[in-house]
Amino acid sequence: MPEDELLIKAARFVGLDGVRKSAIDLALSYCGIQQCSPLHNNGPEIRDTSFIHIIRSGKGVLKMDGREYHLQSNQAFLIPAGVKAQYTADKNDPWHYMWVGFSGLMSEESMAMAGFSREHPVRSVLNVQQLLKDVEGMIETYHLTFTNELRRNGCFFHFISHLIEDYQAQGTLEGLSNLQCAQYARKAYHFIMEHFSEQIKIQELAEQFGVSRNYLYACFKEVYKVSPKQFLNAVRMEHASSLLLSKYLYVSQVAHQVGFEDELAFSKAFKEFHHLSPTEFRKQLHSLAASPTKENPQ
């Protein structure tokens, strides 16, 4: 492969590999289109990126989480990052599919808005041709130039938006419910990230959004796999650990900067999270920083 290209071509396969990830929230990793041979198999394996496959024609089987899904044309399936999966083309009518691999903080939320989750990884697709155009657009921008990176990212975000619109167009109450739920979860996520140093109460946050506390909890847990309170605490504790690097901040000052009015309550929460008190954590950091490093033997 030339050094200025990402393109991989074969008789039945065309795709991009090694795509640079410049976006943290949602970034393209791989994409491709493939006409599979009979019984062509992938896995079982675990990948560090999520994959969405859209079947153009043919049939195949997906095995994931102890379940087996028999799939055909105009269906799509999601394999989330970190989940072991295996998928195999049919012996008599092997599938022809396109796929997009991606990662980032918004991966689960984006897929939830598009009608996918680990518990429900399969759904039908109405507009396969539009999604195919998006993938072809990504593949066409295979030269490693900044302008191509911008075009490729544009095609990728078009693909995600068209996938969401395709789900909305199916008009299911479940789809509308999942979309609304993901939107509330996203609002809560961004609010917590911006205001974690303030006095945040989940009940008041839910009232601000015009929903019940239980509904916001359920939405947030569905999208981010933790409760809003757990997420708020994790953000505060991670930020506190960074502040403790400074020798010039008292523990009480660190506590106030991450939203705790009471130093004792902060110390208790910190120890539960890091298994060390703030003072012990700081001492450990400083002792590690002061330790001489040894050169590795050649």
Commentary on this structure:
It is a single chain. The protein is an alpha+beta fold and 298 residues long. The protein has 2 domains: 7-170, Sandwich (Jelly Rolls); 172-290, Orthogonal Bundle (Arc Repressor Mutant, subunit A). Helices cover 45% and strands 21% of the residues. The protein contains 10 helices and 11 strands. The strands form 2 sheets. It has a 7-stranded antiparallel sheet with strand order 1-2-3-10-5-8-11, with helices on one face. A 4-stranded antiparallel sheet has the order 4-9-6-7, with no helix packed on it. The radius of gyration is 23 Å and the shape is elongated. The two termini are 34 Å apart. Residues 1-6, 19-23 and 293-298 have low confidence and may be disordered.
Query: What is the count of DSSP helices, taking H or I runs of 4+ residues?
Result: 10
The name CATH uses for the topology of the largest domain is: Jelly Rolls
Helix content bin: 40-55%
Give the CATH level 1 class of the largest domain: Mainly Beta
Output the CATH homologous superfamily of the largest domain. Answer: Regulatory protein AraC
Quaternary organisation = single chain
**What characteristic shape results from the CA principal axes?**
elongated
Strand % is 15-25%
In round numbers, the mean pLDDT is: 85
Q: What is the count of distinct domains?
A: 2
Protein structure class:
alpha+beta
- Which strand order do you get reading across the main beta sheet? 1-2-3-10-5-8-11
